[in-house]
Design goal:
2 helices; alpha+beta; 5-stranded mixed sheet; 152 residues
Length: 152
């Protein structure tokens, strides 16, 4: 990284990232039907199932590991959280699907207490309990990862 680059938190390029899932089939259905992803490849082995998907500009791996369990996350302030920008024309239809399909949905309005720079958007849990944030973006043609929240 050059000395004159300023880090503002935006992801400029990320080849892929993995989302932990308990039920790969259920997760694949959610990411396809609600988020608009498409399946690229499905790999099943004795210890792990991997579903490779294309979600807008990004590649997402939905990975399950045998009998491992995911911790229950009861707060939107949990980590990790994946944050996406959604094209303006796709935002409202996606929000309607999210509100219909997700058990946890919360509007992001003003200072949300999430440590997120967005003043408007939605935070929700996917079919596996992972938290995701979305916001409406102008000037983009595909959904794209904007930033990630991790606990340090």
């Amino acid at each position: 990284m050059s000395g004159n680059m300023k880090a503002n938190g935006d992801v400029h390029h990320l080849d892929h990232f993995v989302v932990a899932v308990m039920n790969p089939e259920r997760a694949e259905k959610f990411y396809t039907e609600v988020m608009g992803a498409r399946t690229l490849k499905y790999e099943n082995s004795p210890n792990m199932t991997r579903v490779f998907m294309k979600l807008g500009e990004n590649h997402v791996g939905l990975f399950s590991q045998g009998t491992a369990t995911l911790p229950k996350r009861e707060s939107a302030n949990s980590y990790p959280r994946h944050s996406f920008q959604v094209p303006e024309s796709e935002y409202d239809p996606m929000v309607a699907k999210i509100r219909r399909e997700c058990s946890f949905v919360r509007d992001i309005k003003g200072e949300s207490g999430l440590g997120c720079s967005w003043n408007d958007g939605l935070v929700f849990q996917d079919s596996e309990g992972n938290f995701i944030e979305i916001t409406k973006a102008t000037g983009i043609s595909k959904t794209r990862l904007h930033h990630l929240h991790f606990d340090f």
